[in-house]
Design goal:
Blueprint: H1 2-47, H2 54-61, E1 64-72, E2 77-80, H3 81-93, E3 101-112, E4 115-126, E5 129-132, E6 136-143, E7 146-152
Parallel strand pairs: 1-7
Antiparallel strand pairs: 1-2, 3-4, 4-5, 4-6, 6-7
Helix pairs in contact: 1-2, 2-3
Pfam families: DUF4440 (PF14534)
Protein name: Nuclear transport factor 2 family protein
Keywords: Signal
């Protein structure tokens, strides 16, 4: 009887340790995805400023896999990593990044396996006033800790 009690207690502690390890793994996974997402928006905010540099753009693209794709059905469909990079450079050289975007507010996030869906808004300065942009939805997929695909649904 004493042996059964010892085995039962050992199994109980073992089960608790496994459950705790799984919870820690989920938190670690979610935290790493969240970190990459926050870095992406932080670096984009920097690029959107009038004095941004090519290095600032390069910092964003360091977050992407080599086979990264950007999908925006409303604005032309599928873009390769190179297409998107060239678009950033073109916008920067044409003065498209003028500092009017002053923040990017993530309002909601849903985490999945190697994916996050977000609802976000651009916060802009217009005519000296702070204005919230429309809510926008985006899906981020990750591979090996880097952003593999972004799909915009706005």
């Amino acid at each position: 009887m004493k042996l059964k009690s010892i085995v039962l207690i050992a199994l109980l502690f073992s089960s608790l340790n496994i459950i705790q390890a799984q919870e820690n793994n989920l938190n670690t996974h979610k935290d790493s995805l969240n970190h990459a997402l926050n870095q992406y928006y932080k670096l984009n905010l920097k690029v959107f400023q009038q004095n941004s540099t090519i290095e600032d753009i390069d910092n964003i693209f360091a977050l992407f896999t080599d086979d990264f794709t950007y999908v925006h059905p409303k604005y032309g469909g599928v873009y390769t990593r190179e297409d998107l990079y060239n678009g950033y450079k073109r916008n920067q050289s044409n003065g498209g990044y003028d500092g009017s975007v002053i923040d990017i507010k993530i309002e909601n996030s849903i985490y999945g396996l190697n994916a996050i869906t977000v609802s976000k808004r651009f916060i802009k300065k217009e005519d000296g006033k702070t204005v919230k942009g429309d809510a926008q939805m985006a899906l981020f997929e990750f591979k090996n800790g880097k952003i593999f695909m972004i799909k915009e649904y706005w």
